[in-house]
Amino acid sequence: MYNLIIVALLSYLVGSIPTSIIASKLKGGFDIRSHGSGNAGGTNVWRVLGWKVGLSVMLVDMIKGALATYYVPQLFWSNSLPFNNLTPLQDVTIVRIICGVAAILGHVWTLFAGFKGGKGVATGAGMLLGLAPVEFVVAMAVFGAVLGTSRYVSLGSISAALAFPLTMFFRENIFNVDIQGYHTLIFFAVGTSVLLLYTHRENIKRLIAGTERKI
């Protein structure tokens, strides 16, 4: 159990790396949280410092989630855990979920920047890629389509967050795809989407009011 705590903390630290703040200080000599929307995320960096820096920040944040989800658990486990597995998932998948969630929490409430980070979309995407690649690809396609037509990054992120659990549900129940651990993963997918929707609550208000900024 101590090893589980260790990998969760390590994943939180990986997620806490303040990519956008580091990039803004290196590129512009300022803290990104003092410019634009005040959010320490890739979208705000994109708006303030341009698409190249913004895209780089998003990719690094995604890599953080993937590393924490897939590689950090391998420090102690391959396929087994020191406690009984009460879910239909493989043991290592349970640890990956815990580590992935820890990384998202680290990104949103970063230890290295006063617990004020980004919204966790890119880091969450990296985690989802490791857990459910098909659902991830569909969600990213939805994100791209919505962004391309509306030019709202927030709306694209919200749409992708909804598409992930819906894709998993339809694959399992409509298209009869046997998704390993579905009955646990579907609750996790819904929970992740709810968290991302919560972090976008102000964006949702602005979208409804028609005051949300476009790219």
Structure, explained:
This protein is mostly helical. It has 2 domains: 1-113, no CATH class; 132-215. The protein is built from 10 helices and no strands. The chain has helices at 2-16, 19-27, 42-49, 51-71, 91-108, 121-131, 133-150, 153-173, 182-199, 201-209. Helix 1 (2-16) packs antiparallel against helix 4, helix 2 (19-27) packs antiparallel against helix 4 and helix 4 runs antiparallel to helix 5. It is globular. The chain starts with a helix and ends in a 6-residue tail after the last helix.
Name the shape in a single word.
Answer: globular
The low-confidence runs, each spanning 5 or more residues with pLDDT under 50, are none
The number of domains: 2
State mean pLDDT (0 to 100 scale): 89
The share of residues in helices is 55-70%
Radius of gyration: 17 Å
How would you characterize the largest beta sheet? none
Q: What's the total helix number?
A: 10
Strand content: under 5%
- What structural category arises from helix and sheet content? mainly alpha
End-to-end Cα distance: 45 Å
Number of DSSP-assigned strands? 0
Order of helices and strands: HHHHHHHHHH
